[in-house]
């Protein structure tokens, strides 16, 4: 038996593992992830290494003829489980469960190594009394020493200022700093430190007295924790119900017990306010990882975590891989967000991966959301997770009044505008009063469905109960099973000729709005207007400071930010997310509508919401208008049960990418046949593993790469993993040249 070993633990080195022979004596004990000592290099110096694979296959050419020449592992390190070995085990688990190579998995979990210069950070601190500073300021003004004036002004408001900021942003020269230093008004402090992206900020906690409901959650979770019980907890509570306060209290308690915590938040939902709250509570012991950090900064955060210089990390899903020595708690806020699922192989879900990290460390997991994922709520109902509810909004503000505008009626009564009469009336009212409105187009990915404007009928697949998608050549196709019919000219339900695709973009809404209300100041936020790096923040900041009356946008505008002056939210076409050809369409719509509605009336004045739709009777619309999650869940889970969709069952998507259409189709068909042979004919039909497809993916071709997909539905995840392994084996055997295959378990995005 042989072991693949990496000597230097970093993402860059995993492509170059060294193979060693496993001596008899270690064979029983050696496991993937273990730290070992191996003779390395010319001098055979004993060096630390990590086992990333154990195999029977000898890859070292000369050794095939003469195995004795291969070096042997010297020993297993005494350290036992190290930070690194946990990460490698985690990679092994991801490799197993999500279908990727071990190398891909390792690259996902290991920090990118950057030669970090230990930065020397300089900062300027105020010295001397306020009076002395004010006197000096007066003098600088009289003498027209502008640079000095600027710096003194800054020092009066901040105790410390980063040196780079003074010479950079303030444009004050080093000699000015020196002259004030000589006058004993400031001092320059130099220290060598890791880069901390949060930077210095005043502490001073704004700790709240927890409400009874909040206290109860903290108490129950800690009781379990101190009894040695590790579990998963789901907090269902609307925005503003005090979840973050509970997370902080729990994190604080776990940190007090000497362990570390990971706080996951979708990047787009992380607001500055949240960051400051954590910073105030945890001071320098908290840090942040996100996409704006440089690779060097990320690496620094990892080093600080490993050296126990921080206790808490905040970040998107990749923050799970922070190399903390001893994680006690993982919190996932907005746990329903689809950004927790990776779109790259390994296509892992942060929620499931968090459970595995928790298992490896002996940690608990807390999930929170205003609209929990069907997955989590289902687990809670099954008793796997403990469920807590926070029902009251602590910030005041009442729930908005929701109107549902039936677009079929609008058409019938002669209104062909994209704005219903109710929405027009309320928009005009808000413009008069000088209050703000948001118009929300819940477009997501590709929504090429066909629907009837007169009766609301949506053309669906009779087998999969998802909307059919319109394709070139007038065909309608189901993207799960490949069912196909020609596009009809008249509505099959009511015979109307107003049956068509739905295409309205944010730009079009902006134009129509300006036609209706030429005086309105309008901002638009979508993929076009946010291409520049900071434009997202700029648009939000400008809206929040009242520079516009209406903000038009896609999903982006409903996350995170609070706009107390928004008293009207209009959802232009709820159907856009309701009828994408995807079994999660109802869930996604419920979440989006509920969130969007929650945007209205955060401040003193109560808000109103208009949901425009052709399907006002759809349960996702009905229950989001009532903000009734439980009722929505009960309907949605019935649908999932009926059609064996997750979370009731599991689904494996096998995607084939190919330059040649025929080659891709053929490979997809061959693989599908292999997979289908795993269906056990002794099982009753409704329990048996079900093959759906293969079919062209909903976007059948991107950049001249053809995409085919088939699905397997089965209640047992482990069996699907076995099928995946078998398919991987076949792919190795067949060695397809122009094709590439990816696996996606319980897919979120089936575009
Ligand atoms: P969520 O995370 O559910 O949106 P937060 O924890 O952010 O809720 O709380 C919403 C607001 O209510 C925040 O401004 C917070 O400071 C405040 N808050 C939270 N808990 C309490 C409490 N027990 N007493 C008073 N205010 C609270
Ligand atoms: Zn119709
Ligand atoms: Zn179908």
Quick synopsis:
This protein is α/β, with parallel strands linked by helices and 751 residues long. It has 24 helices and 30 strands. Helices cover 34% and strands 22% of the residues.
Describe it.
The model has no long low-confidence stretch (mean pLDDT 86). The protein is of the alpha/beta class. It has a seven-stranded parallel beta sheet, sandwiched between helices. Helix content is 34%, strand content 22%. The protein folds into five domains: 2-109, 3-Layer(aba) Sandwich (GIY-YIG endonuclease), CATH 3.40.1440; 119-193, no CATH class; 212-390, Rossmann fold (3-Layer(aba) Sandwich); 401-447 and 502-640, P-loop containing nucleotide triphosphate hydrolases (Rossmann fold, 3-Layer(aba) Sandwich); 650-745, 2-Layer Sandwich (Alpha-Beta Plaits), CATH 3.30.70. One zinc ion binds at residues 461, 463-464, 478, 480-481, 483. One zinc ion (ZN) binds at residues 452, 454-455, 457, 491, 493-494, 496.
Bound molecules: adenosine-5'-diphosphate, zinc ion
- Give the end-to-end Cα distance, rounded to a whole number of Å: 43 Å
Sheet with the most strands? 7 strands, parallel
Q: What's the CATH C level of the largest domain?
A: Alpha Beta
Query: In what range is the share of β-strand residues?
Result: 15-25%
User: Helicity level, as a percent range?
Assistant: 25-40%
Provide the structure class.
Answer: alpha/beta
The CATH architecture classification of the largest domain is 3-Layer(aba) Sandwich
Shape: globular
CA-based gyration radius: 29 Å
User: What's the domain count?
Assistant: 5
CATH topology of the largest domain: Rossmann fold
- What's the β-strand tally? 30
Please give the oligomerization state of what you see. Answer: single chain
Number of helices: 24
Spatially, the strands of the biggest sheet line up as: 11-12-10-13-14-9-15
What is the residue-mean pLDDT, rounded to a whole number?
86
Poorly predicted tracts of residues: none
User: What name goes with the CATH superfamily of the largest domain?
Assistant: P-loop containing nucleotide triphosphate hydrolases
């Amino acid at each position: 038996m042989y072991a693949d070993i990496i000597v230097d633990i970093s993402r860059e080195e995993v492509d170059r593992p060294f193979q060693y022979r496993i001596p008899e004596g270690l064979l029983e004990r050696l496991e993937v992830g273990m730290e070992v000592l191996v003779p390395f290099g010319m001098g055979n110096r004993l060096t630390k290494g990590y086992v990333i694979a154990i195999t029977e296959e000898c890859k070292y050419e000369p050794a095939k003829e003469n195995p004795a020449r291969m070096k042997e592992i010297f020993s297993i390190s005494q350290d036992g489980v190290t930070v690194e070995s946990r990460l490698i085990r985690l990679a092994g688990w991801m490799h197993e469960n999500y279908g990727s190579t071990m190398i891909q998995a390792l690259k996902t979990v290991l920090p990118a190594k950057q030669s970090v210069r230990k930065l020397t950070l300089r900062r300027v601190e105020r010295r001397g009394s306020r009076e002395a500073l004010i006197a000096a300021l007066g003098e600088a003004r009289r003498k027209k020493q502008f640079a000095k004036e600027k710096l003194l002004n800054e020092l009066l408001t901040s105790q410390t200022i980063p040196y780079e900021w003074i010479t950079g942003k303030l444009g004050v020269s080093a000699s000015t700093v020196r002259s004030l230093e000589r006058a004993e008004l400031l001092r320059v402090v130099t220290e060598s430190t890791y880069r901390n992206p949060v930077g210095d900020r005043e502490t001073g906690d704004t700790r709240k007295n927890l409400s009874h409901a909040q206290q109860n959650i903290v108490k129950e979770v800690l009781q379990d924790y101190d009894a040695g019980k590790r579990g998963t907890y789901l907090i269902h509570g609307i925005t503003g119900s005090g979840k973050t306060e509970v997370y902080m209290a729990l994190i604080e308690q776990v940190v007090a017990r000497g362990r570390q915590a990971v706080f996951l938040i979708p990047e787009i939902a992380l607001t500055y306010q949240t960051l400051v709250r954590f910073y105030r509570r945890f001071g320098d012991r908290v840090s942040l990882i996100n996409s704006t950090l440089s690779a060097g900064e990320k690496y620094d955060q990892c080093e600080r975590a490993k050296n126990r210089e921080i206790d808490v990390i905040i970040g998107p899903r990749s923050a799970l891989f922070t190399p903390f020595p001893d994680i006690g708690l993982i919190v996932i806020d907005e746990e329903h967000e689809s950004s927790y699922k990776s779109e790259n192989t390994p296509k892992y879900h942060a929620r499931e991966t968090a459970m595995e990290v928790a298992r490896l460390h002996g940690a608990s997991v807390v999930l929170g959301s205003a609209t929990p994922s069907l997955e989590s709520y289902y687990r809670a109902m099954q008793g796997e997770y403990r469920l807590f509810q926070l029902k009251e909004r602590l910030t005041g503000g009442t729930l908005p009044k929701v109107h549902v505008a039936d677009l079929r009626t609008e058409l019938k009564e002669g209104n062909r505008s994209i704005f219903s009469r109710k929405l027009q009336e309320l928009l005009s009212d808000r413009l008069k009063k000088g209050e703000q409105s948001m118009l929300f187009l819940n477009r997501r990915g590709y929504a090429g469905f066909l629907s009837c404007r007169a009766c609301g009928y949506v053309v669906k697949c009779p087998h999969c109960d998802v909307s059919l998608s319109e394709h070139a050549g007038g065909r309608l196709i189901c993207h799960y099973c490949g069912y196909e019919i020609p596009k009809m000219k008249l509505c099959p339900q009511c015979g109307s000729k107003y049956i068509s695709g739905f295409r309205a973009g944010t730009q079009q809404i902006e134009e129509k709005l300006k036609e209706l209300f030429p005086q309105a100041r309008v901002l638009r936020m979508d993929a076009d207007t946010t291409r520049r790096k900071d434009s997202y923040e700029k648009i939000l900041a400008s809206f929040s400071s009242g520079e516009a009356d209406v903000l038009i946008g896609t999903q982006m505008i409903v996350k995170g930010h609070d706009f107390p002056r928004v008293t009207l939210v209009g959802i232009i076409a709820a159907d856009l997310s309701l009828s994408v050809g995807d079994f999660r369409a109802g869930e996604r719509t419920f979440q989006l509508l509920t969130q969007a509605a929650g945007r209205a009336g955060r401040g003193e004045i109560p808000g109103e919401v208009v949901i425009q739709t052709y399907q006002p009777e759809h349960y996702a619309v009905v229950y989001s208008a009532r903000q009734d999650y439980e009722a929505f869940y009960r309907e949605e889970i019935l649908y999932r049960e009926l059609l064996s969709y997750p979370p009731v069952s599991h689904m494996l998507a096998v995607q084939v990418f190919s330059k040649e259409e025929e080659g891709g189709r053929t490979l997809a068909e061959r693989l599908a046949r292999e997979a289908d042979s795993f269906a056990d004919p002794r099982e009753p039909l409704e329990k048996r593993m079900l093959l759906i497809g293969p079919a062209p993916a909903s976007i059948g071709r991107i950049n001249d790469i053809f995409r085919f997909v088939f699905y397997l539905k089965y209640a047992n995840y482990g069996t699907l993993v076995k099928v995946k392994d078998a398919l991987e084996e076949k792919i190795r055997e067949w060695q397809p040249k122009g094709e590439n295959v990816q696996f996606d378990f319980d897919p979120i995005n089936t575009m």
